[in-house]
Write a structure and sequence with these properties.
With about 325 residues, this protein is of the alpha/beta class. The chain is built from 12 helices and 10 strands. The chain has one domain: NADP-dependent oxidoreductase domain (TIM Barrel, Alpha-Beta Barrel). The protein has an 8-stranded parallel beta sheet with strand order 3-4-5-6-7-8-9-10. A two-stranded antiparallel sheet has the order 1-2. α3 crosses α4, α3 packs parallel to α11 and α9 packs across α10.
């Protein structure tokens, strides 16, 4: 009677323990995404395996951030293996920026994605001080050269500029899209008021996403930004989904307890929570293959209603439990 549930528990444990030792691991994860997970309370479905952008493009709900990669935090070969490991496990959305390590992050990524560019949903960013004149076009060309790619799947404005400049920024993005240099564009760190202003300018509604910080211990976006994006059928891209370098949630006792019930890591539970709605894309960063494998398990975790209530009580956010 419980054979299926036992297999699910064994599967999660083996993912963390063996990772790429099994050639069919990625397919196994995909198959398990439709399974239910044992735990307290009624089981819910795992997070959606894809998130739909406004133009209909689908991306995985879990990607890989590359802010510090290629800059000496870990041996280069280890970081490359970590990124390749994630790609093989379905974490094919890769996020970077031209200003990460003065371009070293993009150069690092180019070595990993060489020969498999068509598998990757590649995201980079332009800085606010690059949006005037032909600055956006030049920044994009520089990023493409470092990445060894002819196009970006998504190009983001890294931080807000005054709303009076929104029209020019959108026009710049649209010119790059028409030229085939980018396939979509979006913004980062916008509040709901800035999103409203963006949608008032010509073609502002073409914005594909808003990349903002979001994690169990940073829920500030829920009342306004997250709500606004949901109303406009726009997914949010969550950076620092584990709390960021200096505020990681993975040591929290509640998370550890829930992770034990699901036979996975605390990080996997935290990421499963972030992507639970099917309208949020999480981009954790890891230079460790073992940690990437732990993160990937989040794709097949189904948090129960009681899990969610427990996490809500442990991490109520600045506005109280939701």
């Amino acid at each position: 009677m419980n054979k299926h549930l036992l297999n699910r528990r064994q599967f999660s444990a083996r993912c963390a323990a063996f990772g790429l030792s099994f050639p069919a691991l990625s397919a196994m994860i995909a198959a398990q995404a439709t399974a239910q997970v044992p735990g307290t309370g009624a089981a819910s479905k795992p997070a959606a395996r894809t998130v739909k952008l406004p133009d209909g493009t689908t991306v995985p709900p879990l990607g890989q951030g590359c802010w510090h990669l290629g800059q000496g935090r870990h041996p280069l070969a280890v970081e490359e293996e970590a990124l390749r490991t994630g790609i093989s496990l379905g974490l094919t959305l890769v996020d970077t920026s031209g200003n990460y390590g003065n371009g070293r992050s993009e150069q690092f990524i180019s070595r990993v994605i060489a020969g498999q560019r068509d598998r990757i949903f590649l995201v980079s960013k332009v800085e606010p001080n690059q949006v005037s004149g032909d600055g956006m076009a030049r920044a994009c060309e520089a990023s493409l050269a470092r990445l060894g790619s002819d196009y970006l799947d998504l190009y983001l404005l890294h931080a807000p500029v005054p709303s009076t400049q929104f029209s020019g920024v959108v026009a710049g993005f649209e010119q790059l899209r028409a030229a085939g240099k980018i396939r979509a564009w979006g913004v980062s760190n916008f509040n709901s008021g800035q999103m409203e202003d963006l949608f008032r300018v010509p073609d502002g509604h073409r914005c594909a996403t808003n990349q903002v910080p979001y994690s169990l211990n940073y829920r500030h976006i829920e009342p306004a930004v997250l709500s606004w994006c949901k109303q406009h059928n726009m997914p949010v891209m969550a950076y620092s989904p584990l709390g960021g370098d200096h505020n990681l949630v993975v040591g929290d006792r509640t998370l550890v307890q829930i992770a034990a019930m699901h036979d996975c890591s605390a990080a996997a539970v935290a990421l499963a929570w972030v992507i639970r709605s099917g309208s949020v894309i999480a981009i954790p960063e890891s230079g460790s293959p073992a940690h990437v494998k732990e993160n990937a398990v989040a794709l097949s975790i189904a948090l129960t209603p009681r899990d969610l209530q427990t996490l809500d009580a442990a991490f109520p956010g600045p506005f109280g439990a939701t």
